[in-house]
Amino acid sequence: MKILRASDYKRMPWKNGKGETAEIAVFPADASIDDFDCRISMASVVEDGAFSTFENVDRTLVVLSGEGIRLCVDGSDPIELRADSAPYIFAADAPTIATLLGGPITDLNVMMRRGTSDCRVRRQTSEPVAAWCRGVTLVFALDRCTKDGLQLLASTDCVMLEPGEALVLDRDENASVIVIDIA
């Protein structure tokens, strides 16, 4: 089990240069923005515009805070995502236009290169978090999370579990996490 603190996330410009992202994890660990198999990052979106494109990659987007965002992917009907929406999966190589619904948002991006691994992203709220992984599992804290009554994660920290490891976080009525399973 490895704790990833938000203060240690690697900050870098977006691929399109129009913003900044905080890279939480990348696989393989030495991969660049162009050759990763999986990349997990958090970003602030402060204006409307086009998303960066990534060839042969699927993106899962979760709105963490703010009013929300409207996405138009490859000319399809727009979809609105808010902080309480389910994770949304779409092709990262499709042209995507984003329109903010009422000001800046913060989002979580999970990008997986097609044909490398499977990935499942889910939001979990107000129940004990139990994770046992066959691949790599990341638990991203939306709120403070405790284990055995002690703080384990602050908001936007993450814990990474390797194959075979398990984690049970305390039940907390206010705690929410995003669980990312990579197999």
UniProtKB/TrEMBL annotation:
InterPro entries linked to this entry: RmlC-like_jellyroll, RmlC_Cupin_sf, Uncharacterised_HutD/Ves
Pfam families xref list: HutD (PF05962)
Protein name as it appears in the record: HutD family protein
Organism: Agrobacterium rubi
